[in-house]
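> call design_seq(struct)
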């Protein structure tokens, strides 16, 4: 067997509804205070200032890939 590196991108698409004085401020809040990790959407904004809507199922994009130099070994 040979080992291959296959790049994969998981994209989560959604939106934050943010209360802010302007569109520019709302975008800045999203950049500075909102994020996503596997299993958790989070924001450091107060709960009454932000709502979120993200699917739990990402879009998957599989890249071209390449062969690795090291062989596969059994790990027991």
């Amino acid at each position: 067997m040979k080992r291959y590196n296959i790049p994969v991108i998981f994209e989560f698409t959604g939106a934050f509804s943010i209360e802010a004085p302007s569109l520019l401020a709302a975008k800045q809040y999203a950049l500075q205070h909102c994020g996503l990790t596997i299993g958790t959407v989070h924001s450091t904004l107060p709960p009454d200032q932000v709502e979120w809507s993200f699917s739990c199922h990402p879009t998957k994009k599989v890249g071209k890939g390449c062969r690795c130099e090291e062989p596969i070994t059994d790990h027991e």
